[in-house]
Amino acid sequence: MPFVVTEACIQCKYTDCVVVCPMDCFFEGPNFLAINPDECIDCSVCVPECPVNAIIGATEVPPEQLHFVALNRELSQHPEWKRISKQKEPMPEHEKWAQVKDKLPLLLIDDKIT
C-alpha cells in the first residue's frame, strides 16, 4: 500500500520528504503536499524525513484521517498541483502550525480555503 500525507502537513509543507523519494511521486499545492498512490512504491524512505510525522502508510492511517487517502489521490491529479522533487523552504510560521490539530479547514486546493 502507498503512503499518505496527512493533516499535519497543512500549513507546514516541509519538503524534506520529496528529496528522498525515488519515484518523485509528491505533488505540491499552496499549503500541503500529496503523494500519488499509483506512483508510490511503498519504499517508506520519505516517512522518517517528515519532521511532523505527516506521512503514514495507507493501511495505518487513523480512522479520523482516512479521508486523506482519497484526498492524496485527488490532489496528486489536480491540474494545478505540480510534481515536486527539490526541497523548498517550509511555509511561513511552520513552527507555529507544526503542533496544531484539526487543520483540514485550512487546506488550500487552489488559492482558496476549501
TrEMBL record:
Cofactor: [4Fe-4S] cluster; [3Fe-4S] cluster
UniProt key word Protein transport: no
SUPFAM superfamilies recorded: 4Fe-4S ferredoxins
Coiled-coil residue windows: none
Pfam families, A to Z: DUF3470, Fer4
Protein's UniProt keywords contain Iron: yes
Limits of the 4Fe-4S ferredoxin-type domain: 1-30, 31-60
Keywords: 3Fe-4S, 4Fe-4S, Electron transport, Iron, Iron-sulfur, Metal-binding, Repeat, Transport
InterPro entries documented for this protein: 4Fe4S_Fe-S-bd, 4Fe4S_Fe_S_CS, 7Fe_ferredoxin, Fd_C, FdxA, RnfB_subfamily
NCBIfam families for this protein: FdxA_Protbact (NF045490)
Role: Ferredoxins are iron-sulfur proteins that transfer electrons in a wide variety of metabolic reactions.
Protein name (Swiss-Prot/TrEMBL): Ferredoxin
Species the sequence originates in: Herminiimonas contaminans
